[in-house]
């Protein structure tokens, strides 16, 4: 859109003009009658390989080529690529995520993350690399994936070792923010039955935020901390061994390791409501918040061919250790910090049987077990209370979360589809049993909770024309309840039988109804989808920080149930092979949501009729991929991605704020051949300032506690400003 002045163009319009200029008259002269067809997209959303267009539900797939070409390294870029998916990486390395308004930020994700069918509980934001695709499943996925998937699931699917030939790839990226990023993978056949695949990477990044206060003395002590507050180092790798033990038995074993050393919760501090939205890219804190995390994971998959039935066993073990230092008051004074050392161990086991024939009846059934252990021994550091001269390290340290949490899950599930003529009928059911026990180790408070949930799913679809389908589904999901810890020294909280206990929260539940259409047109050169959904969402869980109800002056950082909401919306998408050289894809999402009931945490005000958090009313993406022969065996490529997020409700039901709309344009262009790829990459081409999340937060600074400043402030996580890098890839 061109405004009243011809000197200023909207970023979206300018991107379209650039794209048109890139294509030029040669592209416009290419006859669309050329038989360039869209490739078939195979996904495993229903735990069997299927064409994306044959699944009666909303699934988005991001190909391995798109992941590599667009430099998709983290969650933020996935969120911008899929409408109605609100996904960003907090600077502490944990995701903020919701799908269709289901799920929340912080400790109440509501969306599951998976690497090769193994759920990720601790490091979903890690860089996994060497991926065949990323699948985004929208809506409750309770039947096949269980609890903690009430909003949907994000699946990372890695490449499988091949016995065909030795092959590999080495890629280097360098540019702005002093980024140095090197990754590589190799596939090595060991015999005609066995092969090995390995991936490794290392990355250094100075980040884009600054902390000028980090160089200033604190209580007379000079820490000389780096001004580059978001500087990070990350490395890791994965090794996969796969092969046939016999004609009927095959094995896939992998180990992975990820190490992260970087920032934690580097929120920009916005005063006032509404916030000023100055996008300062600064963090004025006494100490640079830090997060150190190490994760080791192992996975063993065994497949047995039983004729028309396949048996699959998937065993996994994950161990994560992390230390997080957070400046809670968000000021240059060392006033109020937290230190959170944490360990997490998870073991899972799935046994699965599935049909393999071509008959009208297809089914999958199995059992699943999970054991989860988490230990935290965190402290609140009050640096303003000096006990030894002016040494801030001698401030008062108070236990904050000293707890042991044990969770277990046992489930049986099954899903059946039956084709009769042009119709397909589907029925799924899961019986999910959860147990949760938590103990505040230092004070002896403990509590336990268990629950059994029956999760059904129904679907019906009908072929329309030669390559189209209409469908309707109904699915139920839930997020288990649990417990919140309390601070050391707090007066005890007593249960109904007089026992010392903790503050609990109940499960949340959702039922989604979806009506959709999928089809292929123009002799396979065009595909399109449309989906309409309606969601009843009950007893919604949200993270909060509030005074301890005991009145002792300590804080509780936990989860509470707020109320019920209703979401309804529409999603549209298309993929068009416009010519031999040009491919266009796009998607649009709309959500309308409101609270049916619920109360604000602070004053008990009625939320009915208000918009729940994390709702982006309108979101859209447009991608253009152009490739044509150039010279000397090289092709010229240009990829443009335009992502628009409308105004978003902030991350809390109370004192809600709105994150303004924004449009981000990414550009990649360069030369590629069978072996070489040289690209210029520009993220956020027009340097759009934006927050990926925005929410109210208690003002724990001295001014906030004394009343000279507002009791609440607004905090936001900055999106990536303009970043220019170059990349070189060699394949063999």
Summarize the structure.
This protein has about 725 residues and is mainly β. Helix content is about 5%, strand content about 55%. It starts with 10 loop residues before the first helix and ends with a strand.
Task: Please characterize this protein's 3D structure.
- The chain has 732 residues and is mainly beta.
- It has a single domain (42-695, 703-731), classed as TonB-dependent receptor, beta-barrel domain (Maltoporin, Chain A, Beta Barrel), CATH 2.40.170.20.
- The chain has a 22-stranded antiparallel barrel.
- The longest helix has 18 residues, at 11-28.
- Mean pLDDT is 85; it is low at 1-34.
CATH level-four homologous superfamily name: TonB-dependent receptor, beta-barrel domain
Helicity range: under 10%
**Overall pLDDT score:** 85
Radius of gyration: 26 Å
Topology:
Layout lengths: L10 H18 L13 E2 L6 E2 L7 E5 H6 L5 H7 L3 E5 L5 E5 L11 E5 L2 E2 L11 E8 L3 H4 L6 E7 L8 E9 L3 E11 L4 E12 L26 E13 L4 E14 L5 E3 L19 E16 L3 E19 L9 E19 L5 E26 L8 E26 L2 E18 L4 E20 L3 E12 L2 E3 L8 E2 L5 E2 L1 E3 L2 E14 L4 E13 L2 E7 L7 E7 L1 E15 L4 E17 L19 E14 L2 E12 L2 E2 L8 E2 L2 E11 L3 E8 L7 E8 L3 H5 L5 E7 L4 E9 L1
């Amino acid at each position: 859109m061109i405004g009243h002045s011809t000197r200023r163009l909207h970023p979206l319009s300018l991107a379209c003009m650039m794209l048109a200029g890139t294509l030029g008259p040669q592209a416009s002269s290419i006859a669309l009658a050329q038989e360039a067809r869209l490739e078939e997209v195979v996904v495993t959303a229903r735990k069997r390989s299927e064409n994306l267009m044959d699944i009666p539900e909303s699934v988005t797939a991001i190909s391995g080529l798109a992941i590599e070409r667009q430099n998709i390294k983290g969650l933020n870029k996935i969120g911008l690529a899929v409408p109605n998916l609100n996904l960003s990486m907090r600077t502490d390395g944990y995701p903020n995520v919701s799908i269709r308004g289901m799920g929340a930020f912080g400790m109440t994700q509501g969306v599951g993350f998976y690497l090769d069918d193994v759920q990720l509980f601790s490091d979903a934001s890690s860089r996994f690399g060497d991926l065949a695709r990323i699948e985004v499943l929208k809506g409750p996925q309770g039947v096949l994936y269980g609890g903690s998937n009430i909003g949907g699931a994000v699946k990372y699917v890695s490449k499988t070792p091949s016995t065909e030939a030795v092959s590999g790839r080495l890629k280097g990226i360098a540019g702005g923010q002093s980024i140095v990023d090197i990754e590589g993978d190799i596939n090595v056949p060991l015999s005609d039955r066995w092969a090995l695949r390995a991936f490794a990477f290392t990355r250094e990044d100075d980040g884009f935020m600054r902390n000028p206060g980090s160089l200033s003395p604190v209580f007379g002590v000079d820490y000389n901390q780096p001004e580059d507050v978001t500087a990070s180092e990350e490395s890791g790798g994965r090794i996969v061994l796969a092969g046939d033990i016999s004609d009927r038995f095959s094995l896939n074993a992998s180990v992975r390791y990820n190490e992260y050393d970087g920032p934690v919760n580097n929120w920009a501090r916005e005063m006032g409501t509404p916030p000023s939205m100055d996008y300062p890219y600064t963090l004025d804190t006494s100490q640079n918040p830090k997060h150190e995390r190490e994760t080791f994971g192992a996975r063993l998959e065994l497949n047995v061919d039983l004729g028309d039935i396949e048996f699959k066993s998937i065993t996994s073990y994950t161990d994560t250790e992390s230390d997080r230092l957070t400046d809670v008051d968000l000021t240059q004074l060392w006033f109020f910090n937290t230190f959170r050392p944490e360990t997490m161990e998870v073991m899972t086991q799935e046994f699965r049987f599935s049909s393999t024939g071509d008959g009208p009846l297809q089914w999958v059934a199995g059992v699943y077990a999970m054991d989860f252990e988490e230990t935290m021994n965190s402290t609140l550091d009050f640096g303003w209370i000096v006990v030894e001269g002016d040494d801030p390290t001698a401030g008062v340290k108070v236990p904050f979360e000293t707890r042991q949490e044990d969770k277990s899950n046992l489930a049986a599930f099954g899903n059946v589809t039956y084709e009769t003529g042009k119709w397909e009928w589907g029925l799924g059911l899961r019986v999910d049993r959860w147990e949760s026990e938590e103990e505040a180790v230092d004070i002896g408070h403990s509590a336990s909770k268990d629950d059994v949930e029956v999760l059904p799913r129904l679907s019906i679809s009908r072929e329309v024309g030669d390559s189209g389908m209409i469908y309707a589904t109904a699915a139920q999901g839930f997020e288990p309840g649990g417990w919140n810890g309390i601070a050391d020294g707090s007066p005890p909280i007593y249960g109904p039988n007089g026992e010392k206990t903790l503050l609990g929260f109940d499960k949340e539940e959702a039922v989604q109804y979806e009506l959709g259409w999928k089809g292929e047109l123009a002799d396979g050169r065009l595909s399109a989808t449309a989906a309409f959904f309606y969601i009843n969402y009950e007893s919604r869980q949200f993270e909060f920080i509030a005074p301890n109800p005991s009145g002792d002056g300590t804080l509780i950082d936990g989860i509470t149930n707020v109320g019920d909401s209703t979401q309804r919306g529409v999603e549209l998408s298309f993929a068009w092979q416009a010519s031999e050289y040009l491919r266009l894809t796009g998607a649009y999402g709309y959500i309308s949501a409101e609270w049916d009931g619920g109360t604000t945490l602070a004053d008990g005000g009625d939320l009915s009729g208000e918009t729940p958090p994390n709702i982006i009313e309108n979101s859209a993406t447009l991608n253009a991929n152009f490739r044509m022969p150039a010279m000397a065996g090289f092709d010229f490529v240009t990829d443009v991605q335009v992502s628009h997020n409308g105004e978003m409700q902030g991350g809390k039901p109370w004192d809600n704020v709105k994150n303004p709309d924004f449009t981000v344009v990414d550009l990649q262009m360069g030369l590629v051949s069978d072996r070489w790829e040289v690209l210029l990459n520009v993220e956020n081409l027009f340097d759009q300032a934006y927050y990926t999340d925005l929410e109210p937060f208690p003002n724990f600074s001295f001014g906030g506690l004394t009343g000279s400043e507002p009791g609440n402030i607004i905090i936001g996580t900055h999106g990536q400003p303009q970043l220019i890098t170059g990349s070189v890839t060699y394949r063999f």
